[in-house]
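Friendly challenge for the regulars: who can give me the structure tokens for this chain first? No prize, just bragging rights.
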Amino acid sequence: MTASLDTVRDILQRSICAVVGHQTLLQFEHHRLSLRCVACGHETTGWTIGEPPSRSATSASPSRIETSHAA
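First reply, four minutes later:
Bragging rights claimed.
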């Protein structure tokens, strides 16, 4: 009986989040930061922290940026 009540509670909480929006809080883990909803438990994929950015994540060099000027 309690399993079915838990299921109904979970569905109700997800429905409220779908209508009103998630109640997000920052969640800190070792080398990771994410957002987590306190009502339904939904969690974003998050961000890796504390590691240097990869070379592909750095900005493009100015010589590779193309601009167009109106004539």
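The two ends are 74 Å apart (CA to CA). The chain has a mean pLDDT of 79. Your move, everyone else.
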